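> forwarded from #structure-qc
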């Protein structure tokens, strides 16, 4: 794959020598950090370029792209060849999502799935591309690690990812992998987006009582951060959280690598940076997110406000889950939020629910929310299931129409609103057939 990146770089520099470049990147952390890397890289080359950040690709977006410019797609486009092959310009893709069809002649692509090598995030690929252009770009490795963490690829980094980490200035420590590891533990528990604890998550009083029962007290005027906890306090906290996740995980799954980086002159947890970037994009402020990545001070002030509002919206959404329409079987839960939860946070809600103690490993969680004349679908598998939820979603969308993306345990789709009942009926049929096989 590294040789392929070198060849990709050579072709890119040759074909864009006298052309403007249109960058199109995904709006999650991986896509935003990819955009930050390419911004710095192309600025250093003196290239004329513009950036477009999108939730996903469909025929309408692709047909609107300028064909007098070279197109570079980051962290997306591997599932859009049927639209891209119609364009009359050169197309370059750095992406790590599954490829579902034959690659057209007008496309140059680097994707780990083509080489049967380790999984690498879009930002990781973009960094390797930048580094292939110039060793000067090694100072952009921090962004690649942010993208890696944002796409949950940090748990078992392979050789290439470890080399990227070594290129960076990121500090890696072992600890409880709740974020931010640098903030008071009571706030981490109250606003956790990873681990849902009934009566604690979203509750100031519940969090205070939970810590009091564990004998974890304040240090001065506030609680310690995760990286400041003693071994005894860490052990107590892990045990208590594990009891709330009895069906879903072992205590060992709560311990992992904490990635810390100097950001705006403070030591920050990269998981927190990732969550902040995602909050911006989901609030329609992708440009602010890129500026924040590049450590623009004005952007940081704006971002802090956006993140606070976003976290409050998540807590409110979680508290409304009990009132939503549900279709449940022992193997799946379909949660139809309609217009009661924003489509921009339905994926976060699905993730939190899939990590709660309420559901057994192997259960599929499918959450739906309206997005104007469309419906956003977010699907998650509880625990370490062998079932590929993306393939299952794709099998439904192939019948009713729409767009699908994601990975085997976490995937998403976008369908027409008028197909709502048809989607639910077909999804139920597929879930009842497919999940029984496992």
């Amino acid at each position: 794959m590294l040789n392929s990146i070198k060849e990709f770089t050579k072709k890119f520099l040759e074909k864009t020598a006298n052309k403007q470049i249109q960058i199109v990147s995904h709006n999650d952390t991986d896509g935003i950090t990819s955009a930050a890397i390419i911004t710095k890289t192309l600025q250093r080359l003196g290239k004329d370029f513009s950036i477009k950040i999108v939730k996903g690709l469909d025929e309408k977006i692709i047909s609107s792209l300028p064909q007098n410019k070279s197109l570079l797609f980051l962290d997306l486009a591997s599932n859009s060849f049927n639209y891209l092959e119609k364009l009359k310009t050169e197309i370059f893709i750095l992406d790590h999502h599954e490829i579902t069809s034959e690659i057209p002649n007008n496309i140059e692509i680097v994707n780990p799935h083509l080489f049967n090598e380790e999984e690498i995030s879009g930002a990781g690929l973009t960094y390797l591309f930048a580094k292939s252009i110039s060793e000067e770009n090694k100072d952009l490795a921090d962004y690649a690690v942010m993208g890696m963490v944002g796409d949950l690829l940090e748990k078992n980094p392979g050789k290439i990812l470890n080399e990227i980490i070594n290129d960076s200035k990121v500090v890696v420590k072992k600890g409880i992998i709740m974020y931010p590891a640098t903030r008071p533990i009571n706030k981490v528990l109250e606003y956790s987006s990873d681990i849902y604890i009934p009566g604690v998550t979203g509750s100031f009083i519940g969090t205070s009582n939970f810590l009091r029962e564990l004998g974890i007290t304040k240090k001065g005027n506030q609680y310690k951060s995760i990286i400041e906890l003693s071994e005894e306090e860490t052990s107590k906290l892990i045990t208590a959280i594990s009891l709330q996740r009895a069906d879903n995980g072992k205590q060992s799954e709560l311990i992992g690598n904490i990635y810390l980086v100097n950001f705006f002159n403070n030591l920050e947890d990269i998981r927190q940076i990732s969550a902040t970037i995602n909050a911006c994009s989901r609030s329609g402020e992708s440009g602010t997110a890129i500026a924040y990545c590049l450590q623009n001070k004005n952007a940081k002030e704006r971002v802090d406000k956006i993140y606070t509002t976003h976290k409050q919206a998540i807590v409110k959404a979680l508290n409304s889950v009990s009132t939503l329409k549900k279709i449940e079987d022992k193997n799946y839960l379909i949660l139809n939020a309609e217009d009661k939860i924003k489509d921009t946070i339905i994926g976060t809600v699905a993730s939190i629910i899939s990590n709660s103690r309420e559901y057994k490993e192997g259960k599929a969680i499918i959450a739906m929310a309206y997005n104007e004349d469309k419906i956003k679908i977010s699907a998650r598998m509880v625990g370490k299931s062998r079932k590929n939820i993306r393939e299952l979603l794709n099998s439904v969308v192939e019948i009713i129409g729409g767009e699908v993306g994601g990975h085997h345990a976490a995937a998403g789709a976008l369908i027409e609103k008028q197909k709502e009942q048809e989607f639910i009926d077909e999804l139920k049929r597929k879930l009842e057939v497919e999940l029984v096989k496992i």
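QC bot note: The longest helix spans residues 297-320. Residues 173-318 form one domain.
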